[in-house]
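JOB MANIFEST
job_type = single_chain_structure
chain_count = 1
residues = 350
[input]
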Amino acid sequence: MRILGIETSCDETAAAIVQNVPHNKNRGFIISNIVQNQLKIHAEYGGVVPELASRAHITNISVVVNAALQKADITPAELDGIAVTVGPGLIGGLLVGVAVAKGMALATNKPLVGVHHMEGHLMSPFLLDDPDKTVDDDQVDFPFVALLVSGGHTLLLHARGFNDYVLLGQTKDDAVGEAFDKGARMLGLDYPGGPAIAKLALNGDNKAHKFPRILLDKNRFDFSFSGLKTSLRTHLIKNPPNEEDHKSRSDIAASYQEAIVETLTIKAINACRHTKCPRLLVAGGVGANRRLRELLVENAGDEVKVTFPNMNVCTDNGAMIALAGLHRLENGYRDGWELNARARWPLAEL
């Protein structure tokens, strides 16, 4: 089966063709994966502007979809199905993707399936760049605990099987990506904040400043980052760094990043112990953070196997949507023309 996946939930216009891999359970081979980001559009505002994002999707969508089909050397008529992100996300962008997917499905008489954005991220570690690659299916298989961390989402869930998810905890305020973006803004860094802070932190001492680890109840798995942001702002007001003192700013960035990734690590490893699940899969754009990867592997030891998606599918992309859609089609799911975009869509409703 070869599936087209379309993703327009935030500020990436993305399309991909993914094929199932019969000899590798749950896996998908990426035939093509095209992503057009909008960083230049939103950078001056320090965050995504919904109206500008939806306009950019309208401009980019045809180019991106056609590029994915051309790179895969496949026509729309040769597809076995079309998958599209339905939600959650920015409603303007979602409407663009859903409209295009509906139009293509109608024109080609191919099955249409709507995908939950976070289920797409959940599938990203199952994606392969090489269909003949030997992989450890025991390490990337159900059941597992998933740490999903991105600009708009931070949550832990127990994935007992495809379409069988138990939400363990989620952020009570800002997502971890927002905490990075707002922290970077306070430090005078560029958008997006996660990569900017990570780069500045490379030469910093992550123990230089003791920012709080907001763990809430240690036996539960919800997150909170608003207090951490307040702590950073208070520190900068009381101890404004000299702009020419690169080491001072690096220490602050490293300490702030450490507070975030340590909180994520503690919660994720505790969730694995709570569920007695020896597998942890990390997905979402923040999953590309090198320090988070180091700390998770270090704390997991031999107790938990930690798996990360390839860097090219950490951020929003069409390949993860295509793979989630492929599994849904294989399991008999189909959507009709009443399919609508959903700005809010609790994962518990899947």
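[summary]
The chain has two domains: 2-129+312-349, 144-309.
The first strand starts at residue 2 and ends at 7.
exit_status = 0
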